[in-house]
Amino acid sequence: GLVLPTLCPLDAVAAAAEPGNPVKLIRNEASGTYDFDTPVMSGSIRAEGAYHGVSRLVDKRTGRQVIDPRYSALNLFRLFSVNLGMGTPRHMKRTIRATETAVEINWPASEEHQGEITARYEVREPDTIDLRLTLRSKGSYEGYELLLPNYFERELIPHVYLKRRAAVKNEPYIDLAVPSFSEVYRGCGLVFPRDVHSARRPLDGRWSRTEYKMPAAPFLPMRHYAHPFIFMTDPEKKMAVVLMMRRASCSAISARYYTEQLADRPTSYSAVDFLIFGDDLLPGDVRTADVRLVVTPLDAAMSQPLKLHEKFSSEAEVATPQSR
Fold first, then answer.
1. Strands 219-221 and 189-193: what pairing?
2. What are the respective helix, strand and coil percentages of the chain, to the nearest 5?
3. Mapping DSSP to helix (H, G, I), strand (E, B) and coil, where does residue 102 land?
4. 246 alpha-carbon distance from chain centroid
5. For each successive 10 residues of the chain (324 residues), what is the average pLDDT?
6. Cis peptide bond prior to 305, omega within 30° of 0
7. What CA–CA distance (Å, rounded) separates 202 from 83?
């Protein structure tokens, strides 16, 4: 007779590693969160308060809780245009709609931000959290960007693929880099733009605006990103949290530089951001952006993040209107 191979539990997890069925979100009235649990991760999504987004995320392989418990990941923070700050969804009125497998937050247009934003969070088996952002503009904005920060516990180390200035024979055109401390940019945020146009954005005055009690911070453009994703590893390089987008909607990636010397760290946490859209907008314009978070084990070559992003990039984007 036919003998079928038996899968050990980890093999079963690997066999189901592709983003698959939606995971049920269980409302936790005590914590005010929507909790989820899969074979490889567990966590919580928060819809209320300043630190909405993924407020807890445990990698079951290592037992590590990767999110700084004071904050969250996939959190909508700053809203920018050229030399303009427009407040933050953290403090704007919102409506929340939850289904068995999704949480959707809607921020209506307001006096300070002439646009409606919807953020829809879904968890998929066994290792994936998807966020779909939809912006419906009701104003005219040049170089519109939404800042999406992700706050991790301080031991996690950021890694990003960066382009070199020009291809040189027999040398790689792309480097995998850890944004590391230098006295040259102490206290500054590092921005890895998509192209020369988005490289100008951090310097156009938007990061100097303090309306709505927003913090002003020097964010400096660095080398261009090679791929629109960044990943955080544990110190042992056994696991990673991969954050990915598609190039068309990812204006830039930013990171707090890393150093083992805590006195030289810019913050008490480890954080990376996406700057989303970067487009010129007119009333009636609609934009969407997909952001994916994946928890993955790492091999010695740290090959999984790039493969996960290539798979994400190959998936069909849902068509959405891009103009009036």
1. parallel
2. 15, 45, 45
3. strand
4. 11
5. 48 51 96 97 98 98 97 98 95 97 98 97 97 98 98 97 83 91 94 97 93 87 97 97 98 95 91 98 98 98 98 75 49
6. no
7. 10
- The answer to whether 104 touches 98, Cβ cutoff 8 Å, is yes
> Is the backbone peptide bond immediately before 283 cis, with ω within 30 degrees of 0?
no
What does the block give as tokens for 221?
A: 């453009």
Its sign, for the CA torsion 77, 81, 87, 91, is negative
The sign of the torsion formed by the CA atoms of 41, 267, 244, 129 equals positive
Phi (first) and psi of residue 312, to 5 degrees = -60, -45
Beta-ladder partners of 244: 229, 292
> Which candidate, 284, 282, 279, places its Cα nearest to that of 81?
279
Q: Which residue has the tokens 């931000």?
A: 113
Query: Which residue is it, tokens 């993040």?
Result: 305
Sign of CA dihedral 75, 105, 316, 54: positive
Nearest to 28 by CA among 103, 126, 119: 103
- Give the N- to C-terminal CA distance of the chain in Å, as an integer: 63
3-state secondary structure of 184: helix
**Strand 84-85 to 79-81 pairing:** antiparallel
